[in-house]
Design goal:
Two copies of one chain form a homodimer.
Chain A (H helix, E strand, L loop, with lengths): L7 H12 L13 E5 L2 E6 L1 H7 L6 E4 L6 E4 L6 H17 L13 E4 L9 E4 L10 E11 L5 E8 L10 E3 L1 E4 L6 H13 L3 H4 L3 E12 L2 E13 L13 E8 H8 L6 H13 L11 H7 L5
Parallel strand pairs in A: 1-4, 7-12
Antiparallel strand pairs in A: 1-2, 3-4, 5-6, 7-8, 7-10, 8-9, 8-13, 11-12
Helix pairs in contact in A: 1-7, 6-7
Protein name (chains A, B): Thiamin pyrophosphokinase 2
InterPro entries (chains A, B): DUF4743, NUDIX_hydrolase-like_dom_sf, NUDIX_hydrolase_dom
GO molecular function, one term (chains A, B): 8-oxo-dGDP phosphatase activity
């Protein structure tokens, strides 16, 4: 591919642009409707989705068009439970009718729907459906690293199983997982560390929260506003991750030079590559006098809608 | 003041909103014209400034209005030197006529004018005038900290001299300075460390680049898009900063609890407070399960136009 000939900096900038393509001129943003519950915006509904929802007037009401327009839940759905159930029924029907291909990836895993992370959840929604409503998703990503005896830093990476629904076979952070309804970040962190890499809780608990990586992209499945809560986990020299629940096929311990090179390749899950880029910046592995897009990298890793 | 009764989280969020008020609905953004050199946008010109520039048609051309409009430099100004000199002549005249109060703070210090930090500079401009054109300013901020023998982290802060032009007498990072035309970040870092706190180069060089803090605010002096390159500098236990060029009146070594409390007070220079907040997040002193606005903090510290 032509892009493989680009300098590293351009490839990294291209990654951030791609993962923030909903912000770019020409995106569907101006044609999306706000998704509104109880008067508060909780997402963006692409036009193709909005038109399919008009069949369900007992659940969704629609007003205006484009950015000025809204798809709202009917006022009769006045509780968390009622909203979650009514939307779920619609989604199950659309899934059976095979209206949206993303619903083929139904997971029976619920995500909370909130105006902001700090707000009370207004409903929960099947994970595979959130992109149809541009509902923000949250997750936990763990940079697993070691400080070698000579002081150099190496990083543990995982390779996703070939049977994963999304990004099969690509490189990933040591541990990562979505934030399911009703769980805290700390619980998610400890659970995913145990399940994906057999990291015992006594080690996982030493992970340090160091910020978030936020971005919004769109593709044929809809709109993906996401924020990943990032943790750095310094692993003991004698520790080796083990394959747990089968979501990972292999682990690698690589020097940061190699990690830096591979994060801009097609071989790396893109949002996890962003988490690694953030690590390299925070750990002074990228220097602002030497990296022309340094400032663009930092803002591109932290974009909110 | 009523705000002093708010919880810490709300005060910190209010700080970030204030420092990004150009992004808020109701800001002058929709009435500003793009400032354009060689076809590339390098700033935002508030309406009151644009109207004063029409007197100088040999330097500035104007087209359209509001966000769709532009103030451009005349094509005859076809070099860095010509542009810098022509604009400087206009600014000197406006200064003599006392047209804009910000020009009373003329510093004889030039900043580069660039579409992006990585681009070649198109001209340089007096520091005190950049807000009239919404030209982005860059600086270096240093979090000076210590790791005490018991492992706890304390932070060195400075108190600005009462005679400083901007934010006299407020708390500030240990060292901070604007990026003058023709200097690198590393040079600025070492020079400011020496001048402001008598930190020798052999210590200053150990400062670690850890990202940027970016924001855009507006006030009666114009538009301030700024990016600060942030460095963490771990200082030896035996080191004490000394007053250098007189821009600082005092230094304090405080526990992070006290630093966290004071950063949301009126006593702290606002952009430096943002740099400290970024430090507290990166060093896991703020935990995402305990801080409701964690994600808003991280994105609010890294906003680009």
């Amino acid at each position: 591919m032509a892009t493989s000939l680009l300098p590293w900096s351009d490839k990294a900038l291209a990654l951030l642009c791609r993962m923030n393509n909903f912000h770019l001129p020409g995106s569907s943003l101006v044609r999306c409707r706000r998704f509104v519950i109880e008067g508060q915006q909780v997402g963006w509904v692409p036009p193709v989705v909005a038109s399919k929802l008009t069949r369900f007037p007992e659940v969704f009401t629609s007003s205006g068009s484009g950015e000025a327009g809204a798809v709202a839940l009917c006022p009769a759905l006045d509780s968390y439970r009622k909203r979650s159930e009514a939307v779920n029924t619609v989604l199950q029907q659309l899934r059976e009718e095979d209206t949206f291909s993303c619903l083929r990836g139904w997971r029976d895993e619920k995500y909370e729907v909130m105006p902001r992370f700090c707000d009370q959840s207004l409903m929960c929604m099947e994970r595979a459906a959130t992109s149809l409503f541009g509902v923000k998703r949250y997750g936990v990503h763990v940079n697993g690293y070691r400080q070698e005896e000579d002081g150099t830093v190496t990083m543990w990476l995982s390779r996703r199983s070939r049977t994963k629904q999304t990004y099969p076979g690509t490189l990933d952070n040591l541990v990562a997982g979505g934030l399911a309804a009703g769980t805290s970040l700390q619980e998610t962190l400890i659970k995913e560390c145990e399940e994906e890499a057999c990291i015992p809780a006594c080690i996982a608990e030493t992970a340090c929260p160091v910020g978030t990586v936020s971005y919004t992209y769109e593709d044929e499945d809809g709109v993906f506003p996401e924020s990943q809560f990032v943790f750095d986990l310094k692993l003991p020299l004698e520790f080796r991750p083990q394959i747990g629940d089968g979501e990972v096929q292999d682990f690698y311990l690589w020097p940061l030079d190699q990690v830096k090179e591979v994060l801009v390749s097609e071989d790396f899950k893109p949002n996890s590559a962003m988490v690694v880029l953030d690590f390299l910046i925070r750990h002074s592995y990228v220097h602002p006098d030497a990296e022309p897009y340094y400032q663009e990298f930092v803002t591109g890793l932290h974009k909110s809608l």
